[in-house]
Amino acid sequence: MAVITKLTRVLSYFVNNNSNKILSSTRSEACASGFARYSSSAAAAAVATEVDMDVVGSRGVGLEMLGVKDYEDYRRSLYGEITHKALLVDAAGTLVVPSEPMAQIYRKIGEKYGVQYSEDEILNRYRRAYEKPWGQSRLRYVNDGRPFWQFIVSSSTGCSDSQYFEELYNYYTTEKAWRLCDPDAEKVFKALRKAGVKSAVVSNFDTRLRPLLQALNCDHWFDAVAVSAEVRITTSLIPSPLCLEDFKWKEYMRHNNAVLHVVAAEKPNPTIFLKACELLGVKPEDAVHVGDDRRNDIWGARDAGCDAWLWGSDVHSFKEVAQRIGVKI
């Protein structure tokens, strides 16, 4: 009933052309209800949100019925020509993609360590392992993520050789393992910055993400990076994220009045999106998140109060993203 009420309010805006306040109220209610229904149980969250999406469409409240163009006009009527102050971007699958199929690499590197499974078998075993509950932590990617990835690699290949794991693990920190999904990305992010639109990477990843972005020479495109595995100490003296195990953080905080920032959540938990907005200094409603996973990226971002576009469906390139925000490329 609540969803139907919200949809009716949105429709009334376009019918009467005089209800900006109603639609703004609807947005606030949607944000509040998103936090109320969020659960640490992934299954519960997925089921609850899937009902809403079935009713109102895959692009937000009534967008399938009203059309993207109408929604963009609505945003511009509220915010001006530039519809969003910040762009949040998913990493793997949106900003970057593997250079070669995962199963192919697992087998290629693993052959000298006795891995005999076919690529199809490795892929199937990988999927089964990845879908299993990770019992050692509520987060898969804790710090460098080694325990989790050791479990994945050994389950996928049947090989528990530590040298094999280290070679594979280190390979995925290099530019050889990844490539930018959109070859025009650099030009677009430069244009966004010039237009005053801030940007951040928001990713379920371990602490290899920052070195990877540096290896791909794209880290300087972004004003912030929110990684689920990181514990950050924010201060002008220490620009890099540090892990608790590697740093005497209590002593440092006492002497430098530092503030401890913990991104202790993985998408679709709204916390990581809120942290990204905090790092950028924008309100969630002023940001749009782009990612390739409907549950983690779209539902999670909307639960945080952000706008959200599905990569490969709502948008297909960063140029298109920029144009929808109102930045000409």
**Class by helix and strand content?**
alpha/beta
**SSE ordering:** HHHHHEEHHHHEHEHEEHEHEHEH
Q: What is the beta-strand fraction?
A: 5-15%
Strands of the widest sheet, in order across it, are 5-4-1-8-9
- Poorly predicted tracts of residues: 1-65, 231-250, 256-263
Helix content: 40-55%
Q: Kindly state the number of beta strands.
A: 9
Described by the principal axes of the CA atoms, the overall outline is elongated
Helices, by number, come to 15
Radius of gyration: 21 Å
Mean pLDDT: 77
Kindly describe this structure.
By secondary structure, this protein is of the alpha/beta class. It is 49% helix and 11% strand. The chain contains 15 helices and 9 strands. It has a 5-stranded parallel sheet with strand order 5-4-1-8-9, with helices on both faces. Strands 2-3 form a two-stranded antiparallel sheet. It has a two-stranded antiparallel sheet with strand order 6-7. Strand 4 (198-203), helix 11 (209-215) and strand 5 (224-227) form a beta-alpha-beta unit. The longest helix is centred in the N-terminal third of the chain and has 18 residues, at 20-37. The protein is elongated and about 60 Å long. The two termini are 42 Å apart. The model is unreliable at 1-65, 231-250 and 256-263 (pLDDT under 50).
Overview features:
alpha/beta; disordered N terminus; 329 residues; five-stranded parallel sheet; two-stranded antiparallel sheet; 15 helices; single chain
Protein topology:
Elements: H1 2-16, H2 20-37, H3 42-56, H4 63-66, H5 68-79, E1 86-89, E2 96-98, H6 102-110, H7 119-131, H8 146-157, H9 162-171, E3 178-180, H10 185-194, E4 198-203, H11 209-215, E5 224-227, E6 231-234, H12 249-256, E7 259-262, H13 270-280, E8 287-291, H14 294-303, E9 307-310, H15 318-325
